[in-house]
């Protein structure tokens, strides 16, 4: 018989006693504060708990009962993962029973005959409050999908292991799924969730056989802090095989970064390093495992240094704009037609830094706009100076990064610079690297159209270096293709490269696009390009990028040649 009183209260208590009198007394004491339900023996009590475990806050359990006694109920509850969490107050008249009940998981006792009512109410309230707190923690502690720890708890427990168990050497592992967002996009979120939950299960099984803990942070980022082992390739292969077996019809590729135990390195630093290692193998399907190494550590230190120093660099004039000429080689002799502005950083301690060392770093976090705005401002001022000084038409291209494109004020900024320096739109050309076109292609096409309407010439930089397939070209409203250097490098010795270049030139002609060949270093390369019909080239053959003062000599040289 299960009887529930009508008053709806927040906490629900199950009272289990075979004596009606005892049930009635407890009802009288508790009914104003709690919602109550009752059972007459252990079997009924268990049924009630199983049906209602999520709504129950407390069980008050008599020990001596027919059918199934209180000890047996405690034993059964202990076996069940959910029921184990319910707090139980034992109702007993026998002192000796207390220890056994405690061992079986009871949290408190109320002795019969029943105590002063206020004491019982206070005990019940205290136990419920404690249990509420614990449940709150256990909910926040685990990620629902994978049953692994959430970030804060993961770090809390990892720090405890690190602090209190220095005898165990823990390695840090970061595990990611390649292109997880695409898997979600193609197969639906629910499917993505299935993969995450499955991977969670695989990791939990792995941890049941070793010492350690695991957590899941953002979407597909898994962290494992586990006792040191020597073959991580095996671990990754095992995870990958399990995932393949669970999802035989979908390609799910895992990648793994590992930071091996190092004395005195706390878990947060360990996982930073593991995460860096993991990002190094993004997209590397043939070799998806990376162990953090000294070279990466040095690079991280350098990166942090550069990020810190950029503000000073701008204020203290450490950034310099260099210029590299572009020549029309169909003229005889080749004619200087334009230039590209390229940034350099002359660091007071680190010396001369090429853009390859900092541009990708700043592109990753938006700081690139600081560099680019600096270059645009300097370049427009320089163009104005040269115009005035030499009365010579020399358009200069500046590089525009992907993140600049998404700066809503880009066109305004550029127009302002042009106006301020008395230039027109032909004086300043814009190079946008090919890889910028591949993602969010529609937004980029729209912006480039606007830039063109505003009067700018758009050059697609590094054409052929990435994925921009030829069929994208017709949709891209660009004016110029800057062919990537890799096509030119072996053009004099490699027949295939030569044919590719000819093909690109043909297509460009068809689409009415000018082609600029970059990276011309030798006479042979120049001759081949000239013969193939390429008009404009840029490269060390003519000049390396040089400071503005040195570039003036190139201009003067050109003016003199043209006069003669
Ligand atoms: P990019 O825009 O494709 O610039 C051409 C790069 O090729 C320059 O390297 C140039 O020095 C180099 N180069 C030119 N001719 C030759 C040659 O004959 N042989 C060889 N081996 N290299 C040659 P740099 O100046 O190191 O710039 C590298 C990249 O950094 C640039 O590639 C561009 O993507 C980026 N970058 C440079 N300055 C800026 C800037 O102000 N803003 C942005 N967003 N990116 C910049
Ligand atoms: Mg460029
Ligand atoms: Mg380029």
Q: Structural class, judged by helices and strands?
A: alpha/beta
Rg is 36 Å
Q: How would you state the average pLDDT, rounded? A: 90
What's the number of extended β-strand segments? 20
Helix content: 40-55%
Query: What is the count of helical runs?
Result: 21
Overall 3D form = elongated
Q: Which regions contain 5 or more consecutive residues with pLDDT less than 50?
A: 1-9
Q: What's the N-to-C terminus distance?
A: 114 Å
Pick out its properties.
20 strands; eight-stranded mixed barrel; 564 residues; binds ligand C2E; binds magnesium ion; alpha/beta
How would you characterize the overall build of this protein?
With 564 residues, the protein is an alpha/beta fold. Helix content is 48%, strand content 20%. An eight-stranded mixed barrel has the order 11-12-14-15-16-17-18-19, surrounded by four helices. Strand 16, helix 17 and strand 17 form a beta-alpha-beta unit. Helix 2 packs parallel to helix 3, helix 7 crosses helix 8 and helix 8 packs across helix 9. The chain is elongated, with a radius of gyration of 36 Å. The N terminus is likely disordered. It binds ligand C2E and magnesium ion (2 copies). One magnesium ion binds next to loops.
């Amino acid at each position: 018989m299960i009887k529930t009183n009508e008053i709806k209260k927040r906490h629900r208590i199950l009272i289990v006693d075979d004596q009606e009198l005892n049930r009635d007394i407890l009802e009288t004491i508790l009914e104003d504060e709690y919602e109550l339900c009752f059972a007459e023996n252990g079997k009924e009590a268990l049924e009630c708990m199983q049906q209602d475990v999520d709504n129950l806050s407390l069980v008050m359990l008599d020990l001596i009962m027919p059918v199934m006694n209180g000890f047996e109920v405690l034993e059964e509850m202990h076996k069940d993962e959910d029921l184990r969490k319910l707090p139980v107050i034992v109702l007993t008249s026998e002192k000796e029973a207390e220890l056994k009940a405690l061992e079986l998981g009871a949290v408190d006792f109320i002795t019969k005959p029943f105590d002063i009512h206020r004491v019982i109410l206070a005990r019940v309230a205290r136990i419920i409050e404690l249990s509420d707190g614990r449940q709150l923690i256990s909910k926040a502690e685990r990620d629902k999908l994978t049953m692994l720890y959430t970030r804060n708890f993961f770090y809390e427990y990892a720090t405890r292991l690190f602090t209190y168990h220095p005898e165990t050497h823990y390695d840090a592992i970061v595990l990611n799924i390649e292109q997880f967002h695409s898997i979600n996009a193609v197969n639906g979120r629910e499917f993505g969730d299935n993969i995450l939950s499955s991977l969670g299960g695989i990791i939990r099984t792995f941890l049941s056989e070793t010492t350690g803990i695991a957590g899941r942070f953002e979407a597909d980022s898994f962290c494992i802090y586990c006792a040191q082992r020597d073959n991580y390739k095996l671990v990754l292969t095992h995870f990958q095989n399990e995932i393949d077996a669970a999802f035989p019809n979908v390609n799910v590729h895992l990648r793994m970064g590992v930071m091996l135990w190092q004395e005195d390195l706390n878990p947060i630093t360990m996982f930073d390093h593991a995460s860096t290692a993991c990002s190094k193998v993004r997209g590397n399907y043939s070799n998806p495992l990376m162990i953090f190494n000294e070279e990466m550590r040095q690079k991280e230190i350098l990166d942090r240094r550069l990020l810190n120093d950029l503000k000073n660099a701008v204020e203290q004039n450490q950034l310099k704009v260099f210029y590299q000429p572009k020549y029309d080689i169909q003229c005889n002799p080749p004619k200087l037609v334009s230039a590209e502005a390229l940034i350099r950083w002359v660091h007071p301690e680190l010396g001369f830094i090429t853009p390859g060392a900092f541009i990708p770093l700043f592109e990753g976090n938006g700081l690139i706009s600081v560099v680019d705005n600096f270059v645009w401002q300097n370049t427009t001022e320089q163009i104005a100076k040269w115009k005035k000084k030499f009365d010579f038409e020399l358009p200069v291209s500046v590089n525009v990064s992907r993140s600049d494109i998404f700066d809503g004020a880009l066109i305004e900024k550029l127009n302002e610079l042009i106006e301020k320096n008395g230039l027109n739109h032909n004086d300043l050309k814009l190079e946008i690297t090919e890889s910028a076109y591949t993602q969010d292609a529609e937004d980029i096409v729209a912006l480039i159209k606007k830039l063109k309407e505003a009067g700018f010439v758009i050059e697609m930089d590094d054409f052929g270096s990435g994925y921009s397939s030829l069929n994208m070209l017709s949709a891209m409203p660009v004016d110029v293709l800057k062919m990537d250097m890799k096509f030119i490098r072996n053009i004099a010795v490699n027949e295939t490269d030569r044919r590719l270049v000819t093909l690109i030139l043909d297509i460009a002609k068809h689409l009415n696009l000018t082609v600029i060949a970059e990276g011309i270093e030798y006479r042979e390369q120049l001759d081949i390009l000239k013969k193939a019909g390429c008009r404009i080239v840029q490269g060390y053959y003519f000049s390396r990028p040089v400071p503005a003062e040195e570039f003036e000599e190139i201009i003067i040289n050109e003016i003199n040649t043209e006069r003669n």
